[in-house]
Design a protein that fits this description.
The chain is of the alpha+beta class. The chain contains 4 helices and 8 strands, in the order βαβββαβββααβ. Strands 1, 2, 3, 4, 5 and 8 form a 6-stranded antiparallel beta sheet that branches. A two-stranded antiparallel sheet has the order 6-7.
């Protein structure tokens, strides 16, 4: 078993732009709580412009702070399972998807492997990530950039719309 004796803090970004987006985010959050760990904080839900591939429906996004005993690779395996169970099919990078779950931070761990890069390599470039992250963790320090969520948001030049809906 890959469990550690101490709890880890992991920030997950949930996104959906196909199907019943709100219901899908709620299902994903429930599955995360069941399989990964306790949700300690959840951002509001935001409607956000697509990023990367622009010709697609708008997203709903939410960030969860989860307390887990699992190792990063185990969390990745579980969230990929959850995506699959909720109907995610990967056919286009940054394309439309029923559900997307990304690991943004795993404590202050820095890792770059074939399967997982931590912190998420593009989180500081995306308002749809930084706005909900700033809501629940404004002072969390990016371990490589040495800036808080608030500072990263202030520096971000992503023009994409991010609108709080609930």
């Amino acid at each position: 078993m890959h469990n550690l004796s101490v709890y880890q803090k992991v920030f997950l970004l949930l996104g959906s732009n196909l199907g019943e987006r709100l219901q899908i985010l709620q299902s994903a959050a429930g599955m995360v709580e069941e399989r990964v760990g306790t949700i300690r904080a959840a951002s509001s839900i935001y409607e956000t412009a697509p990023w990367g591939v622009l010709d697609q429906p708008v997203f709903l996004n939410q960030i969860l702070e989860v307390q887990t005993e699992l190792m990063p690779e185990e969390v990745l395996r579980i969230i990929l399972e959850i995506e699959h169970e909720l109907g995610r099919i990967r056919y286009e990078r940054w394309g439309a998807r029923v559900i997307d779950i990304d690991i943004l931070y795993f404590n202050d761990l820095v890792q770059d492997s074939a399967r997982l890069t931590l912190p998420h390599p593009r989180l500081h470039e995306r308002r749809f990530t930084l706005i909900p992250l700033t809501e629940i963790a404004p002072d969390f320090l990016h371990p490589l950039l040495q800036k808080t969520s608030l500072e990263l948001l202030a520096d971000c030049d992503d023009p994409g719309a991010v609108i709080k809906i609930s």
